[in-house]
Amino acid sequence: MMELVIKGHDFIYETESVCRIFIGPEKIVTVKEKSENSERYLLAEVEKTPQETKIYLELSMNGKKENLSGEIRAEEASDEECERRIGVGAYRLFSKILETTPPWGALTGIRPVKIARKLKEEGLSDGEIISFFCDKYLVSEKKAKLLLETERRETAIIKQSTKESFSLYIGIPFCPTRCKYCSFVSHSIERAKKLIPDYVDALLREIKYTGEIAKRLGLRLETVYVGGGTPTTLSAKELERIMREVDTSFDMSAVKEFTVEAGRPDTVTLEKLETIKSCGADRISINPQTMNDKILELIGRKHTSRQMLEGYELARKVGFRSINTDVIAGLPEESVESFENTMDVLTSLRPENITVHTLSIKRSADFSENGGELFLNGGRIAAKMLDVAKPKLESAGYGPYYLYRQKNTLGSLENVGFSLDGYEGMYNVYIMDETHTVFSVGAGGSTKLKDPWSDRIERIFNYKFPYEYIEGFDEILSRKRKAEEFLNEASKQRGTDFRGKL
User: Fold this and answer.
1) Average of per-residue pLDDT values in the chain
2) What is the DSSP pairing of strand 165-172 with strand 220-228?
3) Among 166-180, 414-428, 462-476, which is the least confidently predicted range?
4) With CB atoms 3.0 to 4.6 Å apart as the test, which of 293, 308, 400, 466 could cross-link to 150 if both were Cys?
5) What are phi and psi of 230, to 5 degrees?
């Protein structure tokens, strides 16, 4: 456990986020005064005077203690600048004691590409943007350049969205088994099979209701994404019912991309793939995570690398326009050499998308007493894996098109989607950039309403678990009505609807 001692300010969230770059999901307790015998703490103190703001930081851990201090002139001491100085200072102290420098520096947050895009819109050159990240947040030049590469391809996709555009996410929270690293709302089929018929029935009703809202508002559907869990845990008939309801309930004439996750190769059959394709999906995801069978068994995925190859070949046979494959850097006990082999196999297959995730540790219970050291070592290995992945993918013709980061990720590293030119996953960009409204249906769904004339966003949450979703379904429909109210109000304030009509 680490104590976070906060004095003279309320920048708790950002300071804690920088701590987690180095200690992951270790428990952090925020206090105003350090415990008498505490040997593991970060003290962050701010003192303001009319002339200046003084910052003092002190870090104690692993039997070592370091501190630093600084002053900011009153005219420069905005809350944003004070928060940044605290974050950068904390990063420097952790780096010194732990002798490691994570490449994203003190930059926190899920969407760093949005920062790069904003800076470009403000007129900064590529060189100035790189300097911004490197100088102000200690980001490595390599990662800053990655942001710019990704931003260029993301922006081209974002420009295709209009004020009336929206996307649809359909959640299927069931899996054959639960992977040990998983944080999504999903249930193994053995435990939840009896819920599936009622769940599908409720889901069909929510899809229909959401379609009615979209039609009344005059919105235009751009992308559809069926995710989970593992949607292909369902039968071909159940998948067909869901996808036919989407086709009936929404105007599909403008849809540019329709994705279904078939993430677990052990759920892939020819019948399911043919059903998915015949119902309009043109993009599918088949995810090995690793091509090392020993690691697959260790992480709880009950399939083999051979099954992944067989599933991939079936998808090619059926004729999907685009196939994505996911891999994870930093899986327990996987070596850099094993990860490199996975990348070699995947690039030889030539899927249109390859998404490289970094393992995110969700629960401190996953750690032993040496959890902090395991987190740091895992980050070092994961960083080497990413250093292998990017040049291999680039030499095979893939480029980065979307990027995001998560809390408690090994090495504070990133997740990046790579694609061949023209095969970028549009939904991934829209959801990560928060480009337009995304209606989400199903258990655990989070509808994200975007005012198309501003950056204002409002969320509507569905019940988290399938049994709650089924039992509380009427409440879910009631919550969905707020979407219509929000978007109508946004249009009234501008004196126009989404299509530019008065």
Assistant:
1) 93
2) parallel
3) 166-180
4) 400
5) -130, 100
What the block records as the tokens of 57 is 């930081």
Rounded CA Rg of the chain = 24
Q: Is 327 exposed, middle or buried (0-12, 13-18, 19+ CB in 10 A)?
A: buried
Q: Shortest CA distance to 262 belongs to which of 190, 196, 356, 326?
A: 326
170 vs 187: CA distance, rounded Å: 16
Q: How far apart are CA 6 and CA 107, in angstroms?
A: 20
Q: What is the pLDDT of residues 27-36, one digit of tens each?
A: 999 999 999 9
CA angle 378, 296, 193 (to 5 degrees): 120
> Which 3 state secondary structure label does DSSP give 133?
helix
| Mean pLDDT, residues 300-327 | 95
Our measurement of the distance from residue 83's CA atom to the centroid of its chain's CA atoms, rounded to an integer in Å, reads 24
pLDDT higher than 80, residue 359: yes
For the chain, the structural domain boundaries read 1-99, 164-282+423-474, 286-320+322-420
pLDDT in tens, 374-421: 788 999 999 999 999 999 999 999 999 999 999 899 999 999 999 999
pLDDT at 373 over 80: no
Task: Could you please state the CATH topology (level 3) that the domain comprising 1-99 is classified under.
Answer: Double Stranded RNA Binding Domain (3.30.160)
Structure tokens at 205: 């009703």
Letter for the amino acid at 396?
A
Token readout for 452 is: 């198309």
